[in-house]
Amino acid sequence: MTPLSRRAFAAAATAALLTGCGGGHGATRSTAGHPTGTTPSARSSAKPARALGRSVPVGLEIPAIGVDTPVIRLGLAPDRTVEVPPITADDRAGWYRHSPTPGQTGPSVILGHVTVGAHGDGVFRHLARLRRGDTITARLENGTAAVFAVGEVRTVAKADFPTEAVYGAVDRPELRLITCGGPRSGDEYRDNVIVFAALTSASP
């Protein structure tokens, strides 16, 4: 990532990434710096694959929970928090464009809603059901399919969002999928569900 991208990536490391999961508004500003070191969160028994070149994700498939969705690009909102996908009937996942693309070294971040207001269920409504070893395939703009294996699924209070585990430097290609979860109050959820996965293979 460029220095600008790294700053934007750190600026969006927030415990309230998806406060709008139920159709609410906004996200909480974060002042967290960019952590360093290697995070073991996505470590799994799967053999890691060689890193890929940069190519933007255009689709995401998660067979275990029936997800097959286009992927849109997300940036930063005017208040410098990460954008979230729009609340629409045709809900889609969104890749945070200041993170690595799926398959590059580092944590690539993809966000999705668990619910989309009056439209009902969101694209990541069953994210918490994923288990270690389940596969996630990111379809890239260059035609490559980057395949990841789930290493861990966490449900954490938004107030205790594990910034370093999600955004910290890693020495191999990893993926983070994030949505809301836990108890709901009105349009808001108390927790975040975070999936940690590592690249295992890639094919044209």
From TrEMBL:
Residues 30-39 have a biased composition (Polar residues). Transmembrane segments: none annotated. Residues 40-50 have a biased composition (Low complexity). It comes from the Bacteria. The keyword Zinc does not apply. Pfam families: Sortase (PF04203). Keywords: Hydrolase, Signal. Residues 1-26 form the signal peptide. Residues 24-50 are annotated as: Disordered. NCBIfam families: class_F_sortase. This is Class F sortase. It comes from Streptomyces edwardsiae.
